[in-house]
Amino acid sequence: MDLKSSFSGIFESILSxxxxxxxxxxxxxxxxxxxxxxxxSEIKQLATILAPALKGETPSNILIYGKNGTGKxxxxxxxxxxxxxxxxxxxxxxxxxxxxxNCEVTDTQYRILANLAKHFGEKIPFTGWPTDKVxxxxxxxxxxxxxxxxxxxxxxxxxxxxxxxxxVYNLTRINSELKNAKVSIVGISNDLRFxxxxxxxxxxxxxxxxxxxxxxxxxxxxxxxxxxxEMAFKPGVLDEFVIPLCAALAAREHGDARKxxxxxxxxxxxxxxxxxxxxxxxxxxxxxEKIESDNIVEVVRTLPTQSKVLLYAIILLxxxxxxxVTTGEVYDIYKRMCKSLSLxxxxxxxxxxxxxxxxxxGIINSHVVSKGRYGRTKEIKLExxxxxxxxxxxxxxxxxxxxxxxxxxxxLF
DNA sequence: TGTCCACTGGAAGGGAGGGCTT
DNA sequence: AAGCCCTCCCTTCCAGTGGACA
Length: 413
Fold this sequence. Notes:
By secondary structure, this protein is an alpha/beta fold. It has helices spanning 3-6, 10-16, 40-50, 72-89, 109-119, 131-142, 156-163, 166-173, 200-206, 218-232, 242-252, 257-273, 281-301, 305-319, 327-341, 348-360, 386-394; strands spanning 62-66, 96-102, 148-154, 182-189, 209-213, 325-326, 364-370, 376-382. The protein folds into three domains: 17-27 and 217-299, Orthogonal Bundle (Helicase, Ruva Protein, domain 3), CATH 1.10.8.60; 40-213, 3-Layer(aba) Sandwich (Rossmann fold), CATH 3.40.50; 303-404, Arc Repressor Mutant, subunit A, CATH 1.10.10.10. The protein contains 17 helices and eight strands.
């Protein structure tokens, strides 16, 4: 029998399997449901603050705080959608234009202004213009009409930590330069302390109103999951313990609703792949492991080459039995590795920053310790299992030769 | 008590690479 | 083509530091 005929009908048989999902997209982050359980009071508060926009008044600027997956973004988008719908139904109201920007992606003054201006039809190159020119183009384009522009700066803390508060400062003061339009700002942050880094003037004008989103508890997460699961899955495919388990696991991670939804979705996918007819606790546990390892693998795979070499050096040092690895040791091995790969060698200062980045990504854990007479350094520890990560690193063609890297004979420490 | 180590981490600035304007 | 601008990645410089040791 030839190969092809042994696989004949493979697609038919895959597709003929009864799927467990009715609509998987309902479990994705991007989906905005028609109801947001346990966020009624936040919706009301935000709507109350933004409502004056419809009457042609400038709403107060708002800062929204809350950990990941507490519904900040979804509530803000939900309220803005409502605002726009209200506007469509009732033409007596003053026009309102909400603009959503994620500052993790749009993270410089230039890009923020260029993005805003593009919303009003301005053609702005992604680089090349002086920033004040972009600012003026934006100002001119919004001021052509009587309207209220609500600028939503999601992850505003990332913008401020990277590019300072100049854009925010300019945006909070733009109203005094506008004749027709009005601007108000909604800043969303998951770092409560980020206003400490702001100029006091920006701080006070940005946080005219503050909203804090507390984490969901396990019971609330269950409600959210039940609501979505009803729409996402076929009836009767969920074991009764699945939702409480997803909720409990996510509640442990500061009540992250996104995590809870991911768990449920991936558990469904795992079960489907196994041809199971019912999704059980076992699938949730497997989903939990899969999500964690997929995330790490993806992060490591997309690391710049230099960081990959650095990480490889840390792994080898740990494999050699060092409980704690220090910057100096890592830098020494890193230099040797770069030499053997004919890569440029970065300075220790730069490497120190790369180590901090790896820490931020959760791949390693580093903290500064003083060893007294023997100086101050970072102690570095891997946060992930070295075996899998090593394979991911060796998968990079530029690093492949490191698999037979020889440690220097001399003990380093 | 002072010294001194092995760094840390802030600041400033270089330069390459993207682009625009004149 | 020359002169700018913005961003990213990096180097150089250097003050600062916690705690072991003399």
